[in-house]
Design a protein that fits this description.
By secondary structure, chain A is of the alpha/beta class. Chain A is built from 14 helices and five strands. In chain B, strands 2-1-3-4 form a four-stranded mixed sheet, with helices on both faces. Classes of the chains: A alpha/beta, B alpha/beta.
Chain lengths: 408, 392
């Protein structure tokens, strides 16, 4: 009999704490901005910024000192590549450099005057291309286009020479290229930049907005409660477990919707890789959100002022993105930072989401990430209970102290 | 009397120092985090360039030629053969698990086909979900497979009695030589650290400045602040921002010295051009921060605003994806970010071998950011005096 009533009160308390927390969220305009405006608008903004997935026709300057039929053919072929466009033909390197400095061109192709004379004498000649690595995509474009055009011309020249020596076309080609090669881009097959960057950014946005919001709510609670404790002193705030689960449930439910929006709708709208269905997304979101919610709640006791969480978390966003091992390859993340990165749900979240949503991996294929998130959820849950318990004790202590002072 | 006449901004200056040392959040934002991020980037990017990227091989041929190919690929600095697979599906699963970033499939009868002139094809697959690793491996595999194919070609020619030099002139008449200006070793850290660190600095400046002004509104202490400066918002602002300007400028100077003097990153011009660039970034960002809190004179909204802007600045610096590649309607926004101009100056002064005077226009634009607070000056002054905005 007693058992039932205990569970009953626990359950009603839980529901009450849950609804109260939801109300807190909607009453607090700051949290509303973070939870809903930021997490709903930011993905759209980023989606638009990176909407042009690939760079086409990067302007380059050509310095053609050879000015022969072959060199003109080279220039024409460079212009014809999808990556590059010959925007300027100049007569000296210094002119080209000025164009480069003014951002008029993002690469320079230099053909020396000895180009065709060396070729006609059967000697090797060089074509030079310059770009800077400051914008990786420009360098990548210049590199692959110039490389492709040169090798293509090499092949043609060689085949022609061999045919002139009396080989058949087939023989000439087989001698020139004994082994053919063919590359295939997997997943993100158009090599799109948004398709690469956004999945990671989306997970990070989910985590950061969630933990900032939780931190703000905790900061507000502290500022407003009588004793500046995280948890007010009331009967229903006695059971640590029901407070923690009640609050966590509130954040969890809200973010299930935001999570589906971020991880299913946004990739669909912006035509990013989207292997996710709502069902698989949920399978992934449950461990990820649980880990993030408890992480946020556990850390939130350190925020005395409501704005502090915003300051600290925002600053960590970019390092967290880099640490997660999807821009800088995970295989090359230094061990020390890899260890640090395992403290954050975003690390496993980004990897798991990329593998499932961008590459179509099944849940069982991301067992490592899943395990990581589950362990985090467990540890941060215990940690949260522990610090909440401590806060409740503190709250009680202060209350007793105050009342005993009144008594005297 | 004489003292109080001259000390309008000094009162605010001294008051701000006291505030900075009285609360840990200021020390965290101005000293601990900036130095922490320096530690992070310098140790994280120590390698400079991702090497030994794991790739897989499916060898259907298992001949001496195919084994030579695998050995050659493994021997390069850029890649390492992490695993061999029997089937395509196994390799694909491994890609999905993120264990390898690419693999190549050597067809059956490769060796036989090569020597009978049948031109077999080696297919290679690279994962573009990991853009950096995928792109690097694409390039490496292109180079390696080309080298291997040319090697066979060379071998055939040598058997026919051609000399090496003569053969190479036939095989590769035009040699493409592609160089990265100012960063010949392709050290990623050079440009990542050089822009990400100042990017972090501008984010912390934005948040700190919005916080230190917004907290006066929240705690209704702005009147005390203004009174100390004889009611002049200009004096009060100078006095308040001076401590931060000093601290952040020192941090910025330390960053530049660390990168160029300690890490010995390549630099084409005098370091002072970059020091000036950093200083303008500091004060330009402070000006933007005043605008942020001026538009929304509520601490938490101002912080949200500043945070979103500060994070967006990384995209609009043009570092990872060029502005020219963005939709035209969104390109214009790039003019609102001092970090954008910081990056342009960095490219010209550090990487490109050009006269720094070509960048003077960018320095000038960064100075113009100092005029921005005028737009919100009256509004901010009103808010500070009347305190008529919500405080929570």
């Amino acid at each position: 009999m007693k058992q039932t009533s205990f569970f009953k009160t626990a359950l009603t308390d839980l529901v009450e704490i849950f609804t109260e927390e939801i109300k807190h969220v909607f009453k607090d305009s700051g949290v509303v901005v973070i939870f809903f405006v930021a997490s709903l608008l930011y993905p759209i903004l980023y989606g638009y910024i990176y909407r042009n997935e690939v760079l086409r026709d990067i302007p380059v300057a050509v310095v053609n000192l050879s000015n022969s039929a072959l060199s003109r053919e080279l220039v024409r072929k460079i212009d014809a590549t999808p990556d590059l466009k010959v925007a300027y033909k100049v007569r000296s390197m210094s002119e080209a450099k000025v164009l480069f400095a003014k951002n008029e061109v993002h690469g320079i192709v230099y053909i020396p005057s000895s180009f065709s004379s060396e070729l006609s004498r059967g000697k090797q000649t060089h074509v030079f291309a310059y770009s800077n690595t400051a914008t990786l995509l420009y360098f990548r474009g210049v590199y692959s286009a110039v490389n492709f055009v040169c090798l293509d011309m090499d092949e043609n020249i060689q085949v022609a020479n061999l045919e002139a020596k009396g080989l058949t076309e087939h023989q000439a080609k087989a001698t020139t290229t004994p082994i053919l090669r063919q590359g295939h881009a997997m997943y993100n097959s158009k090599s799109g930049f948004a398709s690469f960057l956004l999945p990671g950014a989306l997970i990070l946005m989910l985590q950061q907005t969630l933990v900032i919001g939780i931190g703000m709510l905790a900061g507000t609670a502290r500022e407003e409660n009588k004793f500046h404790q995280l948890i007010p002193y009331q009967r229903k705030y006695h059971g640590t477990l029901r407070i923690v689960t009640g609050k966590a449930l509130a954040y969890f439910v809200l973010y299930l919707f935001i999570g589906i929006y971020n991880l299913v709708l946004i990739p669909y709208l912006f035509q990013l890789p989207n292997f996710f269905t709502i069902w698989t997304a949920l399978q992934f979101l449950v461990p990820f959100l649980l880990a993030t919610v408890f992480f946020g709640m556990g850390i939130s006791v350190f925020f005395w002022v409501r704005e502090t969480s915003l300051l600290i978390y925002l600053c960590t966003s970019i390092p967290l993105l880099i640490m997660a091992g999807f821009s800088w390859p995970a295989s090359n993340v230094p061990v020390f930072w890899k260890m640090i990165s395992y403290f954050f749900p975003s690390t496993f979240g980004i990897q798991g989401f990329l593998k499932m949503n961008s590459m179509g991996a099944s849940l069982s294929q991301i067992d490592f990430e899943c395990m990581g998130l589950c362990i985090q959820a467990g540890i941060y849950f215990i940690f949260t209970c522990f610090v909440y318990r401590w806060q409740i004790k503190q709250s009680e202590k202060k209350r007793v102290k105050t009342f005993s002072t009144y008594d005297r | 009397m004489r003292m109080s006449k001259s000390s309008g901004w000094k009162m605010a200056f001294v008051r701000e120092w006291r505030r900075i040392v009285s609360r840990p959040i200021y020390v965290i934002m101005t000293i601990i985090l900036p130095l922490g991020f320096l530690f992070f980037y310098s140790t994280f990017l120590q390698e400079g360039f991702p090497e030994q990227l794991p790739l897989g091989v499916i060898d259907h041929d298992n001949s001496s030629l195919s084994r030579t190919i695998i050995r050659q690929i493994d021997a390069t600095q850029q890649t390492k053969v992490a695993a061999t697979y029997l089937h395509f599906s196994e390799a694909k699963k491994s890609i999905q698990r993120g264990e390898i970033y690419a693999f190549l499939e050597i067809p059956a009868h490769l060796q036989k086909d090569v020597y009978s002139g049948n031109q077999p094809t080696i297919h290679y697959y690279y994962n573009q979900s990991y853009f950096v690793a995928g792109s690097l491996l694409l390039r490496d595999m292109e180079i390696m497979l080309n080298t291997i194919s040319s090697g066979v070609n060379l071998q055939t020619r040598q058997l026919k009695g051609q000399g090496v030099e003569e053969s190479m002139a036939q095989i590769l008449p035009i040699v493409p030589e592609i160089h990265a200006i100012g960063n010949p070793y392709m050290n990623y850290s050079v440009y990542l650290s050089n822009v990400l660190l100042p990017g972090m600095l501008q984010l912390m400046i934005l948040l700190t400045i919005v916080y230190c002004i917004g907290i006066e509104l929240k705690k209704s202490s702005s009147k005390v602040w203004l009174r100390g400066a004889k009611g002049s918002l200009f004096q009060a602002m100078i006095g308040k921002l001076l401590p931060y300007t000093l601290i952040f400028s020192c941090i910025g100077l330390f960053y530049e010295l660390f990168l160029f003097k300690f890490m010995h990153f390549p630099l084409y011009n005098s370091l002072w051009w970059m020091v000036l660039d950093t200083f303008l970034l500091v004060i330009g960002t402070e000006a933007v921060a005043i605008v942020m809190i001026g538009i929304v004179p509520v601490l938490r909204d101002g912080l949200c605003f500043a945070g979103l802007y500060g994070i967006l600045a990384f995209s609009y610096s043009g570092l990872v994806f060029p502005i020219e590649g963005m939709p035209v309607a969104l390109q214009g926004l790039s003019y609102l970010f001092p970090l954008r101009f910081f990056f342009k100056i960095f490219q010209n002064v550090v990487l490109n071998d050009v006269n720094p005077t070509l960048s003077l226009i960018y320095y000038f634009i960064m100075l113009l950011f100092l005029l921005l607070p005028l737009v919100v000056w009256k509004r901010l002054h009103g808010a500070l005096v009347k305190l008529d905005y919500p405080k929570k």
